[in-house]
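Comment thread on ticket #2218

A.B. wrote:
> Attaching the input chain for the structure job we discussed in standup.
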Amino acid sequence: MLRTTLPRTARIGRTHKLSAALVATASCAAAVALATPSQAATPAGHLAAADHLKVTAVATQAHTAKQAASKGGQQYGNNLDGWIRQSLDIMKAKGIPGSYEGLHRNIMRESSGNPNAVNGWDVNAVNGIPSKGLLQVIQPTFDTYHVSGTANKLTDPVANITAAANYAAARYGSIDNVNSAY
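C.D. wrote:
> Ran it. Output below, let me know if you need it in another format.
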């Protein structure tokens, strides 16, 4: 029997977003429950100050929940996995094709995952414009294919990945189609 499933990254992304929304909702519900003790248990002189603290706590919880929902609860690590996942989210929003596997494979071939890698020996380096970053992009290519919403710095990991994927999409259809130096 043939089963159709979402790619692993789509399943994880949907699960993380749902989990963040549930946690945020539960946190708000708990804050509301804690913020509504019986009036009989609260001395009359402390009611105004206690209510102010409770309202502030609930408002803070609601704001945090709204932020989590707007970001999909997505937190990116400051590491190769986080940079790839953040780039994929930007690529998806901008209509740039590519997969985690395609990006990771090319990054490992080009820089072994070092965002500060610089190629000092190829023809570009000899001509004074060395390839840099995770996907070994030269400055003119970065300038042409830079994706708005990312840092305008060649060695920024997310900007480097996203610009390289944008270039690969224009030239080869997708970063997934690149299997050697490009």
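A.B. wrote:
> Thanks. Noting for the ticket: The CA atoms of residues 168 and 174 lie 5 Å apart.
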